[in-house]
Design a protein that fits this description.
Blueprint (H helix, E strand, L loop, with lengths): L12 H32 L24 H18 L3 H15 L8 E3 L5 E3 L12 H23 L4 E7 L2 H4 L10 H4 L2 H11 L4 E2 L2 H7 L15 H18 L11 E6 L5 H5 L10 E6 L7 E5 L2 H4 L9 E5 L9 E6 L7 H4 L5 E6 L5 H7 L3 E7 L10
């Protein structure tokens, strides 16, 4: 039987070159992933990164470990959040992601912010009403629930000889729909505010609708911030004027100053909320418009900060305050209790010379015990349009 002899011929230069090239490619890929995964892990032991101001939160604490079944199910997610907040070079990696999203791909670096064609920023929400086709029965029920709650509040106060009025601050996309990305135009069509205002009118509820006035002046004056969810003080004055008109129906002696008594001032401002959510570190280019009285009438007020410990269950942010007129020539009524969000906070300086007594409580709740405690003549409440998508606070 013949024996086969295997002869190894020398590899041709091209084949050998390709083999070395393949090894080099694999080594490069290995080193790339080694650096990508090793640097953040090494960074864990060098310095704990700070949470950027635009995230508006504290760093996650190490989770408490309990041996209960439900707690153990949550543990992996809690550990992931803990490690994500402490991973090395976190701020550099996030700035790199922001650069890639914004400058390279021309998109948003946050799933909570939509960027319009002219650079306007809008808040994106994830509720059943932020879908292209919300369920009609869900839509109707939400409107009905809100109207029922508004009616309960108004009736409860009227039965005690007091007055109630609700201001709903429109969302920015309601006033500037043309600045929305095309893919989110359905936000404007699915308007709970439209349906609520119509139903509120039929039930004689005191709800102030600013949309017509804001739409009428927006081409002459910008009324919302381009990089923020909030309106500016052009809209603030309109809100103040409309509410004081409602107050005058009950108390005609209230002074409602005209627009000519104020001037607008453009100030630098770097805390635009949507701009910060995108993680931009540079200062925003948008000016901030604030309102100021041209000449004070000498209306002297005594202002005190209400104790936070008594209000902690209701406050959304601090402080709450109470101010009184020291001018004996002014009438003693009405005493106004103002429940408001951050939109309503800018109304307070405008009211300082119009209302004899003003109690300011920043809250999203309707605190009956505080209303009984302070015995106001008018309860004025301000909420934001997007709150209509949430469960009704009772």
């Amino acid at each position: 039987m013949k024996q086969l002899t295997i002869i190894h011929l020398p590899s041709p230069p091209l084949a050998q070159s390709l083999r070395w090239q393949g090894m080099a490619d694999r080594l490069t890929i290995f080193l790339f992933f080694l650096v990508i995964f090793a640097l953040p892990i090494v960074g864990l032991f060098i310095k704990t990164p700070e949470i950027p101001a635009y995230e508006n939160r504290k760093r996650a604490d190490f989770p408490h470990i309990h041996l209960k079944k439900n707690d153990l199910k949550l543990l992996p997610d809690q550990l992931e959040i803990y490690l994500n907040d402490r991973i090395g070079f976190r701020d550099k990696l996030m700035q790199m992601q922001i650069w890639l999203d914004r400058d390279l791909f021309q998109g948003s670096s946050s799933n909570k912010v939509a960027i319009g064609p002219q650079g306007w920023l809008f808040l994106k929400e994830q509720t059943p009403f932020d879908q292209p086709h919300p369920l009609p029965e869900l839509f109707e029920k939400q409107v009905q629930d809100w109207c029922d709650e508004i009616a309960r509040r108004q009736n409860w106060l009227e039965n005690r000889g007091r007055h109630y009025v609700l201001l709903i601050a429109p969302d920015k996309h309601t006033i500037y729909p043309e600045e929305l990305p095309k893919c989110y135009q359905y936000w404007v069509k699915n308007s709970l505010l439209d349906a609520l205002i119509q139903k509120a009118k039929s039930r004689h509820l005191h709800v102030v609708d600013l949309r017509e006035n804001l739409l009428a002046i927006k081409n002459e004056k910008q009324v919302y911030c381009k990089f923020d969810t909030h309106w500016n003080d052009e809209a603030t004055w309109l809100a103040s004027h409309s509410l004081l008109q409602q107050f005058q129906q009950w108390y005609p002696q209230i002074d409602n100053p005209s627009r000519s008594e104020f001037y607008m001032k453009i100030e630098p401002f770097a805390q635009f909320d949507l701009y910060r959510q995108l993680g931009y570190s540079e200062v925003a280019s948008e000016p901030y418009i604030t309102i100021h009285k041209k000449q004070s009438s000498g209306f002297v007020r005594e202002s005190i900060e209400l104790p936070a410990k008594d209000l902690s269950r209701f406050l959304t942010y601090l402080p709450a305050s109470r101010s009184k007129s020291q001018n004996i020539a002014k009438p003693a009524k009405p005493r106004v209790l103002f429940l408001h969000t951050s939109f309503g906070a800018r109304i307070l300086p405008i009211w300082q010379e119009s209302l004899p007594e003003l109690i300011n409580i920043p809250t999203i709740w309707f605190p009956k015990e505080l209303i009984e405690q302070y015995s106001p003549d008018i309860v004025c409440e301000e909420i934001v349009e997007r709150m209509l998508k949430l469960p009704v606070p009772h």
